[in-house]
Amino acid sequence: MKEWGISGVTVLTPEDIASGGGLEIKDNKIEKIVRDKPRTALTLEIENGVLAPGLINAHDHLLGTYYPKVGNGPYENWLPWDNDLKSAPVYQERQQIENRDLYLLGGYRNLIAGTTTVSDHIPHFVSEQFLDLLPMRALRNYALAHSITSFALAWGEGVEVEYQKAVKNDMPFITHIAEGFDPETARDLKTLDGKGGLGEHSVLVHGIAFTEEDIRLIKKKGASVVWCGDSNVFMFNRTANVGKMLEEGVNVCIGTDSPMSGGLNLLSEMKFDRDYFRKAYGRTLSDEEIVRMVTVNPARAFRLRKFGQVKPGFIADLTVFADRGKSPYESIVSAELRDVMLVVIDGKPAYGNAEYSWLFDSLKLKYQRVLIDGAEKVIKGDLIGLMKRISRAVGFKKELPFLPVEFDV
Predict the structure, then answer these.
(1) What are the backbone dihedrals phi and psi of residue 166, each rounded to the nearest 5 degrees, phi first?
(2) 49-53 vs 318-322, strand pairing mode
(3) How is domain 4-53+308-365 classified at the architecture level of CATH?
(4) Which fold is adopted by the domain 56-301?
(5) Are the beta carbons of 90 and 72 closer than 8 angstroms?
(6) CA–CA distance from 313 to each of 21, 101, 284 (Å)?
(7) Does the structure show a pLDDT above 90 at 62?
(8) So where are the chain's domains?
(9) pLDDT by residue (tens digit) across 137-153?
(10) pTM for this entry
């Protein structure tokens, strides 16, 4: 692939901020960050943009990508919600759609929100047949359990085996945990630790029932936590004690969960979490900290050593947001869908403003012109064809708020 560059942007690494600069991309990596114009023959000039690492959604279920939300909480744990989900008419409607198209739907939901990598929590035998079809990147190397209780789904080979697999292969061990209030769920962390599944490879999703003692143990063991605030509040009317986690120095990441219980996308999730934190703790969770929760922190949790930062030698997964005139961090956290100006995955543009179509042409990349949230965009793949297939499958024009694209049936 040709070398190319981006200029005129504020570069957010996110450790540092450099205004009026840019970067050069070679193959699939960031070649260098420049303080002036890149020396590449092919350079995209962007006005009033903030260039950041591509966002990482630390928890999703791509096969569960649909709408509206289902539930009548608060629930005692995840199981009664799951029963309500599977008895809902909208679940039967979703079942009419091919799994391939649900995966694509989840991929596009993430892509248009500036997300370049997602952790899709599901066994490998389910997801691996669809990952190469996605318009963005999904985590491939991980060990897992569904959850820790006796009523967990039978995912993986058991905590003991899966955690050792994670250690041996230097990858994360991911599990739902402490998702509810019943006595067994409340003991999840102690159960996990007793089985040898708590350590620096552990990525713990939800943690609603974590006590302060649990949080101190998580910090001591070096595990990471994924905060899915919108989903937790919808299902349980509360979420994890993130304030205490941050005080203790736990590595906290943000995930959306499925849109059938969680937020529309990672952009809406960041805003929800910022507002919730202010109401719950009476203090501000900084935009800078939130940006770290969707870049550097999940890269660390998932052991993605060349992701999550804008640095020479790192994979060129990048998102450019419209500069909203305040801090670069605020421009990301407050962004709406129309503010996502460009998404680059593995060194190639995958989505962006329609005025950048010449870049796709120059790099010989196929794309489709679409109208998303009222803004003209170009996107890889066939998003309109996907929406038409879904509408045919369910028998009517299905419009989804997390993917507001105009199309005819």
Answers:
(1) -65, -45
(2) antiparallel
(3) Roll (2.30)
(4) TIM Barrel (3.20.20)
(5) no
(6) 18, 34, 34
(7) yes
(8) 4-53+308-365, 56-301
(9) 999 999 999 999 999 99
(10) 0.98
